[in-house]
Protein: Enoyl-CoA hydratase
Amino acid sequence: MTYETLLVERHGPVGWLVLNRPEALNAMNTRMRDELADAWRELDEDPQVRVIVQTGAGRAFQTGADLREVATDGQGMGRYEDDLLAFDLHFTSWHQKVRKPVIAAVNGVCAGGGLHFVADADIVIAAADAEFFDPHVSVGQVTAIEVIGLAKKIPFGAVMRMALVGAHERMSADRAHELGLVSEIVEPARLREAAQELAEKIARNSPAALAATKKSLEAALELGLTDACKVGSQYLVGLWGHPDQVEGPLAFVEKRAPNWAPE
Structure:
């Protein structure tokens, strides 16, 4: 497909989704919002892609809704009302039910709605100069879904502080790493290289096992301990009989790379 606000690329087994409005710090206008839904599906349905990396062009990862569009086109925030009431955030990998592992490679500023992509990613890495903040309350808006997602991954107190302080304080990459929001910090010039290397490591694993593992661990964010383990057991047993269950141990014994079946 052809996109106006995104770059969609393939590098070996890794699909790249690059937010491409650098002049607007990759703020999400209506066109990007709709294109993201198509791009997530395109990469998730591509059998050659095993892992997806999301990043931003220029000096920002993503800065939320395009406030210039919101303020000037007569629709305001009302454009999102139907989607929000139906809980249809179709621009995120989570709401598109992406089966493949997703890595967020955060370059520069990640603000407001950009936190959706960090909260929804399976792994987050960041450039050393990355910054995180949530300006919703500073522009008269309620912050909710993004930070609720973050509260499932990092200490609640840190999320509440980010939500209430708004645009007046930024979380550094180092602090995000301390909190567990970011798993790795790299020099800015190496961010994409590091993301590609990490994605290629993941891509060496069984696609079917990766998809089932992702679903199992996502359930743990929704459920209590016992119920989450019960669901995990279902995914574990559900893969039995898949060709990869035989191929994995056989490749290990024969000391060779496994030949995984399509998911």
